């Protein structure tokens, strides 16, 4: 495998801070009190006043996210804005117009959902996006800056059985190419028409509709499958299956032009959040990989040429250059077989690396040394 060339430059020196906002007409009561305690409120005016207060304190947000729009009624019942029970797009346009008028530099990200791809309904997005584009033309300024995703990982089939590890690790191939799809809807229904290569579909269609490239954001990393303690519970995954699936998703997004990543933090236990930490600050077993990617997998994302395709060698390689440092992430997603690969960057290094089966390996290369680390079983 050769590693050479550059395909995208990402902003790596500033960590953008986004605020996810409530864009219903209500505010909730105390936790657990339900729909009955909702109170009407002008949340557009409240959001603007809050952002002005932050600015007065010297705290300037990079942007706003609109989350959980698609068939998620938790906490608000049928009063939560979704595509199915309110004029979601009219509401979004009103919010975005007000925010952009008051804060022209503020970025607005929206529509983070994986449910449409799981159900084979990715085309549901296109009329939504066209309405926003028409509103942009009418208003004379941009209303939407980024398209964000709740990315999911599958682990249980429709009989409630834990999926085979190889199925889990191969699943990510369906995100960016016409590969078999093994995922299930969160309701436990097998979807025969799941969308394949849906990241390219989203990127290509948003570019065509808006006439510009929108930012790509991966907003959270959620499980899918009919049996789960909560939507943020990773405990049913084996440690290695989770971190390989997670790392591969980040790598795929990065090569397609990832601009932002966020994750759910402060879980009830470290087993629920393997790559993060719990509310007491205890680190999950996979946290070191999450931390390594956050620190080193940034900058110029390098193109990876390979002589053997994934179906014949289940190894993925991702690389990035940041200043004088090169970071290489190597994933052996073969559950049963180890692999030997050659990693070449012309004029800098030529390495033969033996990879354990089902393993994560990283190279940190600077002007003086090469540091190799990894985990596997």
Topology:
Blueprint: E1 2-9, E2 18-20, E3 26-27, E4 39-40, H1 43-56, E5 63-67, H2 88-102, E6 107-112, H3 115-118, H4 125-139, E7 146-154, H5 165-170, H6 198-210, E8 215-224, H7 239-256, E9 258-261, H8 287-296, E10 300-305, E11 315-322, E12 325-332, E13 339-345, E14 349-355, E15 359-365, E16 370-376
Parallel strand pairs: 2-5, 5-6, 6-7, 7-8, 8-9
Antiparallel strand pairs: 1-10, 3-4, 10-11, 11-12, 12-15, 13-14, 15-16
For the record, give the distance between the C-alpha atoms at the N and C termini, rounded to a whole number.
Answer: 23 Å
The largest sheet, given as strand count, sense and whether it forms a barrel, is: 6 strands, antiparallel
- Tell me what portion of residues adopts beta-strand conformation: 25-35%
What is the oligomeric state here?
single chain
Low-confidence stretches: 1-13
Q: Which class best fits the helix and strand makeup?
A: alpha/beta
